[in-house]
């Protein structure tokens, strides 16, 4: 039993001793915010993926993949955006018979890039500010409790 306690104590000492330098590092909260991709960048990805599906040639397919690839590591993009970029990376390759299905996958992914990857502005619930007529808007248009 004493042997087990000694080994446990030694193990705990090693772990805390190894973690001590990490604990001394200062924590940084968002040193620099990475901007969202511009709508021009997203539009270029869309156009190149559409061209890849239509022309089925190496140049537009490589450009679509090259533009989509760096955005996969973007920390502020949503998972749905990254899923769409992944589809472009995997499907934007010339195929020997350019099938309708291949073109449609690239067309849909290209149009989804503009929807899923742009920065969302505004609130989903809307604001509860005055509507300009002196009335205060309520969330979801619900009637507030009325007491007699």
Rg, alpha carbons: 26 Å
Biggest beta sheet summary: none
The fraction of residues assigned to DSSP E strands is under 5%
Which structural class do you get from the secondary structure elements?
mainly alpha
DSSP strand tally? 0
As a percent range, the share of helical residues equals 40-55%
Q: What is the H/E string? A: HHHHH
Tally of alpha and pi helices: 5
How many angstroms separate the termini?
Answer: 73 Å
Assembly classification: single chain
Q: Regions with pLDDT < 50 over 5+ consecutive residues?
A: none
Q: What is the averaged pLDDT score? A: 79
Outline type: elongated
Structure description:
This protein is an all-alpha fold. The chain has five helices and no strands. Helix 2 packs antiparallel against helix 3. The mean pLDDT is 79.
Summarize the structure in short.
By secondary structure, this protein is mostly helical. It is built from five helices and no strands.
What labels would you give this structure?
148 residues, mainly alpha, 5 helices
Write the layout of secondary structure elements.
Layout (H helix, E strand, L loop, with lengths): L1 H22 L15 H17 L2 H11 L10 H13 L8 H17 L32
């Amino acid at each position: 039993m004493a042997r087990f306690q000694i080994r446990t104590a030694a193990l705990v000492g090693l772990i805390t001793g190894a973690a001590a330098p990490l604990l001394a590092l200062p924590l940084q909260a968002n040193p620099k915010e990475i901007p969202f991709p511009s709508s021009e960048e997203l539009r270029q990805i869309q156009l190149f993926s559409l061209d890849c599906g239509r022309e089925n040639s190496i140049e537009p397919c490589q450009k679509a993949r090259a533009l989509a690839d760096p955005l996969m590591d973007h920390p502020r993009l949503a998972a749905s955006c990254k899923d769409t970029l992944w589809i472009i990376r995997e499907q934007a390759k010339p195929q020997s018979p350019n099938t309708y299905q291949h073109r449609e996958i690239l067309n849909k992914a290209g149009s989804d890039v503009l929807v899923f990857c742009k920065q969302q502005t505004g609130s989903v619930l809307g604001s509860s500010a005055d509507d300009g007529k002196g009335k205060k808007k309520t969330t979801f248009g619900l009637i507030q409790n009325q007491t007699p």
